[in-house]
């Protein structure tokens, strides 16, 4: 399994989880909270990073689930 950072992004009035560099969305949910939970699970499993975007597509939070001893804080 390749290690890909996960992004929670707005998508057609809903929220999507998308692996970095992927065109296809892994999940589409009704709420951002649900998308964050799904993306966090993937990022923890892959030991990658999670980027949470706001409704305008700008990154509002970032969490690291890798081996970095000094991960970025939200």
TrEMBL record:
It comes from the Bacteria. It holds the Pfam family DUF2188. Residues 53-74 are annotated as: Disordered. Residues 53-63 have a biased composition (Basic and acidic residues). InterPro entries: DUF2188 (IPR018691). This is DUF2188 domain-containing protein. It comes from Puia dinghuensis. The lineage of its organism: Bacteria, Pseudomonadati, Bacteroidota, Chitinophagia, Chitinophagales.
